[in-house]
Structure formats: C-alpha cells, structure tokens
Design goal:
This protein is mainly β. Helix content is 0%, strand content 49%. It has no helices and 20 strands.
Length: 237
C-alpha cells in the first residue's frame, strides 16, 4: 500500500521503507529511506507540524520533515508489539493500535500503546507478552460476555473520542471498549456495541458509529454498520 498526507504545497507519500516528498504543482520529488528493510509494510500515517508518524510491521517511526532524522520505537523501546495496525493523533498524544497473528500457535494478539508527544513518554495498557495478556483468545463465536474491564489483548483497529475524558477503541473479536482518561479504567462502550468484527469507528456528541467487516463465510451476518444513539441508547443495524 501507498500512504499519503497533504502538507501545504507538497504531498508526503510512504511505501515500503521509503518516504517521498512530492510537490503538488509538479517538479522533482525527493526520496528518503526510513529503514534498511525493503520488506517493511507501512500500515498507518499521521502528521504533526514537524514530523510524520509512520506505523509499520517493524515498529513506529518518527520522520522529521525538515532534517529527515529518524527515530524508531519497537518492543525494545517499550512497544507491546512491533506490528502497528493503526495510529490516531489526539491533540498532543499519539494512540497506537497493535496486533499480529503469532506463528507459534496462530493466535491473534494485540494491545494499545500511547505516546506523549511533548516528552516522548511511551505508555502501554496491557502486561507484556508471557504474563496475563498471554491467555487464550476469546472465541468470536462464544456468546459469553468478554471482560470489558480488561485492557485490550487482541488487535486494535480504530480509535475515536467520545467525550472530554473518554476514548472508544475497536477491538477485534470483542467489540467497542472505552478508556476513561481520568481514571485509567476500561469498560464497554455506552451504549454497548458488541459486534466483534468492528474495524472503523466514528463518534459525535449524539452518535457512535461502528463499521464491521463483512463475514464472507457467514451469509447470515450481513449487517456491517452499527449506529448507536449516545443519548437514548437505541441501536440501529
């Protein structure tokens, strides 16, 4: 995939292990390497005034727009996983949704990390691999309620702000969880959205909207959009 963001009269493009700076009005583009690995897979791209933030399967990369200096965060620097699936810029904080299928047991694992941009302090919300996070996955076909109060341990697909102190998180195989910024507590979204294939979130003062990937192997599950009223709790599918 090619990821891109506009930046005034130029366009930043990311593909594999390279960043291009392309003038919108035409002219020569400039190519920069962001890593020695040609097989790198960028998955998400955000920008701030001075930097590009690139999520890849080999960690998070900060690319300085002016100097072209690089900084990379991996598990060695505190990420739960190297595989970044999504990035979401919320003011002066960068949320990272992580996820990968482990080859050892074909189990999907994931989690959430948060980078404070002013001080580059990295915070993670689940224990390291091998501790309580290494429990068996919840079965998506299991009708039992997941533990909404447990920080995500499966791949995280999307984020949205639902209030001054509340962040909604789409967790594969679980549904939509919320994180209370003030208390640091996880819970089910209000109203509760339990569609376990949610991949994209949007929110406003009145609505929480969750888009679910189609289930090609289950023709009975054709509902792919859930619209929940945050005022009445009514849910439309």
């Amino acid at each position: 995939p090619v990821l891109f963001v506009p930046d005034g009269e130029q366009l930043w493009m990311v593909h594999a292990n390279r960043v291009w700076n392309v003038p919108v009005a035409g002219g020569s583009s400039v190519t920069n390497l962001i890593g020695p690995e040609p097989w790198m897979k960028p998955s998400a791209l955000q920008q701030t005034a001075n930097a590009l933030w690139i999520g890849t399967d080999l960690g998070l990369i900060r690319f300085d727009k002016r100097t072209h200096d690089l900084r990379r965060w991996t598990r060695t620097e505190g990420l739960l996983l190297d595989e970044v699936q999504t990035l979401w810029l919320d003011g002066r904080q960068l949320w990272l949704g992580l996820g990968v299928q482990r080859q050892s047991d074909r189990r999907w694992v994931g989690g959430v990390s948060l980078l404070s941009l002013p001080d580059m302090n990295l915070r993670s919300f689940v224990p390291p691999l091998g501790e309580t996070r290494d429990q068996p996955d919840e079965n998506p076909a299991d009708p039992a309620e997941p533990d909404w109060r447990r920080a995500p341990g499966r791949p995280v697909k999307s984020f949205a702000r639902t209030g001054a102190d509340q962040i909604a998180v789409a967790v594969e195989g679980i549904g939509v969880q919320t994180f209370e910024v003030g208390t640091g507590q996880w819970n089910a979204s209000p109203p509760k959205v339990t569609e376990r294939g949610v991949g994209l979130l949007a929110a406003s003062a009145d609505w929480l909207i969750a888009a679910e990937s189609p289930h090609f192997f289950d023709p009975k599950r054709l509902q792919v959009l859930t619209i929940a009223s945050r005022r009445t709790g009514e849910i439309h599918r």
